[in-house]
Amino acid sequence: MHPISICCCRAVQLGFRAAMPFLPYRKPEIFDSVQALPALLKGLDISAVLLITDKSLREAGITRTLEIILQESGVRCPVFDGTCPNPTVDNVEEARQLYLREGCQALIAFGGGSSMDCAKAVGARIAYPRRSVNQMRGLLRVLRRIPTLIAIPTTAGTGSEVTITAVITDSQAKHKYTMNNFTMIPRYAVLDPAVTHSLPPSLTASTGMDALTHAVEAYIGQSTTRETRQLSLETVRLVFTYLERAYRDGNDDQARREMLRAAHLAGLAFSKSYVGYVHAVAHSLGGQYNIPHGLANSVLLPIVLEAYGPSAWKKLRELAVAAGVSSGADSPRQAAEAFIAAIRAMNRRMGIPETLPGILAEDIPAMARHASREANPLYPVPRLMDAGELAKFYLKVSDSAAQVGKSQDLPSIRDGHGSAGRLSA
């Protein structure tokens, strides 16, 4: 990246860091069982609530207990179960129409990050009926209070129940973008391990690694606080202790409960300290190919950490100690390499691949530009990279794209920040 661009990015990040103590972060009120919701809704004088989930969860009967207890308590609960793995603008509009048609007064997001992202965007559309979802993309575009939002995570990964962020896909442009607003933090969250027991091993693995990615990127960035560092260290310890237990035995209630806590803590950490290039690249892959976010993060995490090089070694050593893969006597480089190797080994043991299918070399320049625009200047990464540098990550996670890259250079990539790079393998 050009030195002037680096200075501009760091200046923006410094400004956000200075403003952090004055920003209106808040934590949702936590409940440990869905059984608590009827009393909560009655106390809020809410008689109709829209449940936003996905078809697989509903067909598996996982939402049934909640639907029954709400019905028995006299709370109407129409259901939108059309949420896609990467929720789209169309999903948001369909759910919003159902909310208005049924006279709902609140929202319940039941599922993984996709359901919560969809519900947050629905809330934003209700608060701003004359604005499209696309018009509310970016930072601090939703200042009005949204309807009461209750989040019930069924995966221990996204931490969306505590974040300001919703990630939405524009199906026409094949591009993901974020909406970041303090008003979209859920008012209430239910961390109930019972709703996670039926999560398949593959999703347990990828969503757990998503939580790890949140903690790692929050920790190694340059906008950390004492609080977010402590949250990240505890998340790393929990993931390395409990994720494989939950993967091997979905009914291990302690492992499920502790992984929910890990995802929650990681969400609190990255809400304030932000993420990094793993997320930016993963979002572009999800928008282009509908690759699940947790899977993309799992595959990208060790590759991006290696690319940061010496700029991240010291902090990665501290994470390695928290993970139990270094005694702390190792050099920063040795401990960082041990931590990255431990991530790769855990991925292998849980069946997470080293590459992703279907990445086309001709799509890489556009995806790299999207990733660069998302990350720069906001994400306080250890080492700044432009679109040309980010493009190399797509080659590294795709065997087919790498073969193209070996035979010929890809086009010059200009990232919109005054720099360009030529990509080759």
Beta-strand portion reads 5-15%
- What is the number of helices? 16
Low-confidence stretches: 401-408, 416-425
- The percentage helix is 40-55%
DSSP E strands, number: 11
Distance between the termini: 18 Å
Please give the largest β-sheet.
Answer: 6 strands, parallel
Rounded mean pLDDT score? 92
Q: Output the strand order for the largest sheet.
A: 1-9-6-4-2-3
User: What letter string, H or E per element, gives the SSE order?
Assistant: HEHEHHEHEHEEEEEHHHHHHHHHHEE
Provide key terms for this protein.
16 helices, disordered C terminus, six-stranded parallel sheet, 425 residues
What does the model show?
The protein is of the alpha/beta class and 425 residues long. The protein is built from 16 helices and eleven strands. Strands 1-9-6-4-2-3 form a six-stranded parallel beta sheet, covered by helices on one side. Strand 10 and strand 11 (420-422) form a beta hairpin. Helix 8 (226-248) crosses helix 12 (310-323) and helix 11 (293-308) runs antiparallel to helix 13. It is globular, with a radius of gyration of 21 Å. The chain starts with a helix and ends with a strand. Residues 401-408 and 416-425 have low confidence and may be disordered.
